[in-house]
Amino acid sequence: MAAKAKVVLTDYVWESLDVEKKTLAGLAELLPLQTKKPEEFLPQAEDCDALLNTYAGPITAEVMARMPKCKIIARYGIGVDTIDLDAATQAGIIVTNNPSYCIEEVAEDTLALLLACARKVAFYDRLVRSGRWEVPPGKPMFRLAGSTLGLVGFGNIARLVAVRAAAFDMRVLYCDPFVKDGQFDAPGKKMELQDMLREADFVSVHPPLTPQTRKMINDEAFSHMKPTAFVINCSRGPIIDTDALVRALDAKKIAGCALDTTDPEPLPNPHPLRGRENVIINPHAAWYSEQAMVGLQAGAPNEVRRVLSGEWPVNVVNRAVKGKNRAGL
Asked: Looking at 46, 104, 199, 265, which residue is catalytic?
């Protein structure tokens, strides 16, 4: 009887591993860890056949070289910015993600943060909690209908945001070099980034984190925005240059921001972004719902099961690895 494969789980943020154990039953032994860095999980992962990964990283070429048997690195989430994809392809390791488990949740959270900025919901809540009952401190406020939303990136989540924003009678603009104007059946007019920033009352960022998008919302970008504009980030923290954001807020170049993701994350305490009345910060919670948890937990283990069973997985990120991977697929 062939020995069971070894699957190492680098880290997880849920209470039970029943889904993983059931998915891999009879095929692999699961070794769950709670680590943050490769040097913490590598002692157990050097002989693994598959790696399940949530946040721990970065997973570099050097890390992969120390896992010579690893056939697949399966991320629970959408982004793969912590994994060197070129190195994985060279090493013959399949990398998968989970691209659709929480797109509705993140789109809804984006609108929630946008509305909170527009209507000063968090500000007024803090005001009342402090014992005050006044409207003037929240001024000025502007009608959402007829205002302009600028979307940086026009992928799956951004397009759902566009549909929801249009329902509020907002004008939707977007910039995305990989999307043609009218390519998708979703509200939105394509523009160049600077032109869009000049017109937007709300700027919501949604691109994947790549070397090209890292800190793309920087001093120059803020210089093009309206002083009444709000910035919302439910994508990846490093897309916004944190220092530039602080400078823009200090100089009143923008009206405020709402961040579900920050750079760094978690945001240190104290930090210049904390404690500002025009800043909303959430602890990277936009992805979460009970329904999303089901999709999150099922995705990566099923991809591992497919590969260990000799099947090509569903959501391969480095597709060039096909035909030259360690799994022989």
From this structure: 265
Work out the pLDDT band at 1, boundaries 50, 70, 90. very low
* Same domain for 133 and 87: no
70 and 141: one domain?
Answer: no
271 given a catalytic annotation: no
Catalytic residue from among 75, 171, 206, 236: 236
Domain assignment of residue 126, given as a range: 103-281
* DSSP assignments along 140-182, one per residue: ----STT-EEEEE--SHHHHHHHHHHHHTT-EEEEE-TTS-TT
Are 121 and 91 found together in one domain? Answer: no
Confirm whether 265 is a catalytic residue: yes
Q: One of 75, 206, 284, 305 is an active-site residue; which one?
A: 284
89 lies in the same domain as 109: no
Q: Which residues contact 245 (CB under 8 A, 6 or more apart)?
A: 217, 222, 231, 257, 273
User: Do both 298 and 276 map to the same domain?
Assistant: no
Q: What is the pTM of this model?
A: 0.90
Cβ-contact 125, 118 below 8 angstroms: no
